User: Fold this.
Amino acid sequence: MAWIRKDLLGLEELGKEEIELILSTAESFKEVSSREIKKVPALRGKTVVNLFYEPSTRTRVSFEVAAKRLSADVINIATESSSIKKGETLVDTGANIEALKADIIVIRHNASGAAAMLARRVNISVVNAGDGWHEHPTQALLDIFTLKEKLGHISGLKVSIVGDIAHSRVARSNIWGLTKLGAQVTVCAPKMLIPPEIEKMGVKVSDNINDALKDADAVNVLRMQFERDLGTAFPQQLEYFKNFGITEERLKKAKKNIIVMHPGPINRGIEIESSVADGANSVILEQVTNGIAVRMAVLFLVAQAQEKIAFSG
Amino acid sequence: MKEKTKILDKEAINRALIRIAHEILEKNKGTENLCLIGIRNRGIYLAQRLASCIKKIEGKGVNVGILDITLYRDDLTLVGQPESGLAGQQPVVYKTEIGFDVGAKNVVLVDDVLYTGRTVRAALDALVDFGRPKTVQLAVLIDRGHRELPVRADYVGKNIPTSKRETVEVRLEESDGKDEVVIIEKE
Amino acid sequence: MILIKNGLVVDPANNRNEILDILVDGIKIVQVAKDIQREAEEVIDAGGKIILPGLVDMHVHLREPGREDKETVETGTLAAVKGGITSVLAMPNTTPAPDCAEHVSLVKGIIQKTARANVYICSTITFGRLGKELADTLTLKKEGVIAISDDGVSVDNEELMSAAFKKAKESQILVICHCEDKTLSANGAVNLGFTSTRLGLRGISRESEYKRIKRDIELAQKANASAHIAHVSCKESVEIIRDAKKRGVKVTSETAPHYFALTEEDVLGYDTNKKMNPPLRGKEDVRAIKQGLSDGTIDAIASDHAPHTDNEKDIEFERAEFGVIGLETELAVAITELITHKILDWTGLVNKMSLSPAKILGINKGTLSEGADADIIIVDANKEWVVKKEDFVSRSKNSAFLGRKLKGIVEYTFCGGKIAYKNEPRL
Assistant:
């Protein structure tokens, strides 16, 4: 199995083997972060541009650390410090970054499809760090990596994703990735936050949190963004916590070793109880650590695909 | 590809490894501060075999580590070179497992074939990221010549003059089901 | 005089479907008969080709005045004649909109000077298409306007729309309804359903279309006025219109080629040239549209030619403009999808693309009768070609069919007896 894609845009388009290759490569990279000298020269001389149209400290920093541990140079472009606000189009921005002879663009954008569009228009690699409600592939990969690390396998696992499924790129990427690897996925949310025909993605739908937790091996708790303007049909914070919050009480009825994941940043007391976020079932901080390994693997693989490396002894 | 000659069989490989084990012990005056690090893939098995020879001889075990040099290769940032005949081949990254401190140790790097010397160069770079060994030595089963870097092995199972059109293939029980070294000619 | 010989003449207005010659003198067709023996300045051998009345496209955005960067009356009509269309109805979402006598005469002036085909004017239902105050339909009619529409938006206010139908009835003018309930389409970009879920985009429900169709049909019926439903895209809409027709309501409807040639799955990959309003729908909807075409529920095929510049299309999907160009591809798409798959025969095709829209609009077009205007096209129905950006004469290139292989190409377009377009190999 060789990686041949110049870009990583989403998990929907990947095959099972490709996802497994990223995961196994990430396993090797995880060791690098445990060394005294946490750096390898694999991407020495390469330039990674973090192009962020949406504020995101966590994903941006994770990509930055990953790139730096591979010895790449990293440039961060954020909305407030660039010509993006002056109305430059995404295509023009991409062309300019390419003209700088950068090698990889890591893009976060609030419009679904922005990463795919950029990838079509530049010859350099594009890694999707979240586009609108569409996909956030590296987040899902690190979630899956963490699950696999904890439980040894993905196939046959029961994973519930709880929260605002309709507006979540994390949910979509997780669903594609997990189902391709043979997990059974249930999405759980108030009906208004379930997007139409999501069953066609191969998931079960529930609006009862206790049902969703009952036999689950893991629960992925999505961040609730109440500040978003989503219209009147959006639930109230307190009401949401009451009906869907992940609490100790609810976990008592779930499997004893249920794994609790969250893509962060967590809203304590809104979608998850503080004691659960910090509790024995939580792997939230391990997810952060694994995020670096997964992103190193992704950056490494897309760079390789671009170069069509020759090996000479 | 045509298999040309078998240059070592199971017994010959064994004898070479026993001799190298003796030489390592002699040069390092025993097993103190000694460790072996095999370079993926076949270097691992050779390092493990050397360690068991040493154990038999001295009655003491030595630490064995595994080094994956993929991330240190000097061709990672090169654009594919069709003339290498290997364009499009993609290196797969495996784990490096060195479960001990290499600082102030006498480290013996172990690999199957010494050829251009580029793998050893990468291994040296990788190794210093793990600490500062007192000495680094190199043990190989086959030295086939055609060096492109100033690298020399401290311990050699067999020197085999080859042409560049030939490939030396080391096959081991652990990875290939049988022990032998053959020369293959590209047609 | 021009003599077109040996072509297969398809002219449903005269029940003709046979190999005939056509003689044109000046702007008129003077004779349609077998083996005409007359001296003519130009004799065209149409052997093996099909001769149709010039097509009538009743839904075209020419963008002039106001957005000449997208299209002009001249470029739009050049595109039309290349596509075999000799008459277009220009939709009124221009700046200014033709909502009063002064603005209509401005448009008429442009048409007179620059049009390369017959351009008819559709004026607005309300001033500025704002949905607030009805335009003076009677005056507009006197100015030569043949239909009214607020196309691009629907008149949300039910009372106002009701009044519009009454006024239209008095003025004997056609109301063309853009049926969309914006509270239900809710800033959507693609069809609501699995596609919107997969792409992470807001969806436009079928409901937003068919509920409004239902309302407009009811309002038209009460006023005993004629309603024409624009760009029908989904199954429920077809059913509602079919039912209304059965009940004898004076309703007609059109669909666009992309609604029977493409599905929502073509949007996967975020191609903004597949973004239009209403959006591409599902396979079942495509089936229903085809059924509607073949059973007569849908009367006409119109392009909804909506030119946009690269600046407005080469951006993030949800920010890109709605709409695609269609004048230069609609006949070929219809041949490829409908004739090849036997949804329509040639007579049916001419009905949908020429005769019926002419009748709906009340214009004397769509026939090859002796004495009729010499709007004639010669089509090579078997020639295959690939849609390429550089081949469009429209000022905009936002075609949903880029890269597609289509069957059928226009060889000649005569408009008012003159050769308006001739397919010549590029040098």
